[in-house]
Amino acid sequence: MPSIHALANPARFLKIARPLTPVLLLAGAALILLGSWAGLTLTPPDYLQGETVRIMYIHVPTAWLGMGGWSGIAISSIVFLVWRHPLAAIAARAIALPGAVFAALCLATGSIWGRPTWGTWWQWDGRLTSMLLLFFVYLGYMALARADADRGGDGRIPALYGVAGSVLLPIIRYSVVWWNTLHQGQSIGLTSSSIDASILWPLWLTLIGFTLFFAAIVLMRMRTMLALAKAEARMRRMAA
Amino acid sequence: MKPKHQRLTLALLAVAAVLGASGLALSALKDQAAFFYAPGDVAKAGPPVGRAVRLGGMVQQGSIAKQPDGVSIRFVVTDGTATVPVSFRGVTPDLFREGSGVVAEGMFNADRSFTASNLLAKHDERYMPPQVAKTEAGPMHETKTLAP
């Protein structure tokens, strides 16, 4: 039975990650293209917003991955702190850059969507502000992880930061419930959705597509980091 | 206790502390982080006169009245418990309409009316095609989730 320890072995991880990367990448790209095409041509416009609603098919997946990325960093950080698996630290560092990019895309697409619907590019509303903070927290994590690695640290300080940063996730999630905000409430719950089925279905395609794409990028970055570490170790052996 | 279990306990405590911290932050900021005042807040606590604030609610059905100068409007904002009359001079956003959500930026006057310098449209979390919206009962674009 493959336990968490088995997957933590870099050689075994590479054996799985190497063939998995192109599969995730191609499946993700196909679903993104299919979902975007369906969202641009097949679905009806919204009764209130008209065609503007179509930006949802990009905005919602980027928001989901901006937050999902930090959940990944937090979980990897806990696994690293408790079980000391180096692969978990590598996973957290690999997630940081795509997570920050998706958080930035979420802010950009939200701003583009807000101008025609709300009448403003940006407002200091609870949801918007907490998402901007998450983007800055990503940047801080990347700087800290790099500084820690440069100084030969063991990765514990960025891991602690990764756990502490997850304080923002429930704040972003519940900002629209707890506070008066310009941003509307949650549309998609676990069991129900207030988006009509005829508008909703391509969103699942892009949501899954972007998630697979994100996973492929993370695997690629993890493999690069493992390869760099290996090369560095070999150089050190040759120098000694 | 093995060191690993000790670390696991510490990590779980840290997660609990982080969740508690975000809960505290959410509730402590509840009033300060509100993006706008609702008419009900104003009725309870009195209007914050002479300060730039935002007023949010629904545009009452049938309340939008164009003024003779052609660029000013008056309308009434309601949250179901109280109402505030608003006057505004300028261009309204596309989604600004009766029965829909609005956030007005401006100032309260001493008589509890509101002079807006800018209007933002607020929509709710429901998305549907026009033909579905027509068959739904009640006002088509009522913002139901305004009050916390």
TrEMBL record, chain A:
InterPro entries: Cyt_c_assembly (IPR002541), Cyt_c_biogenesis_CcmC (IPR003557), Cyt_c_biogenesis_CcsA/CcmC (IPR045062). Belongs to the CcmC/CycZ/HelC family. Residues 29-183 form the Cytochrome c assembly protein domain. Keywords: Cell inner membrane, Cell membrane, Cytochrome c-type biogenesis, Membrane, Transmembrane, Transmembrane helix, Transport. This is Heme exporter protein C. The keyword Membrane applies. Required for the export of heme to the periplasm for the biogenesis of c-type cytochromes. It is a multi-pass membrane protein. The chain crosses the membrane at residues 62-83, 95-114, 126-147, 159-179, 199-220.
From TrEMBL, chain B:
Residues 1-27 form the signal peptide. SUPFAM superfamilies: Heme chaperone CcmE. Residues 29-148 are extracellular. It is found in: Cell membrane; Membrane. Keywords: Cell membrane, Cytochrome c-type biogenesis, Heme, Iron, Membrane, Metal-binding, Signal, Signal-anchor, Transmembrane, Transmembrane helix. Its main location: membrane. Residues 1-7 are cytoplasmic. Heme binds at H123, Y127. It is a single-pass type II membrane protein. It comes from the Bacteria. InterPro entries: CcmE, CcmE-like_sf, NA-bd_OB-fold. Heme chaperone required for the biogenesis of c-type cytochromes. Transiently binds heme delivered by CcmC and transfers the heme to apo-cytochromes in a process facilitated by CcmF and CcmH. Belongs to the CcmE/CycJ family. This is Cytochrome c-type biogenesis protein CcmE. The gene is ccmE.
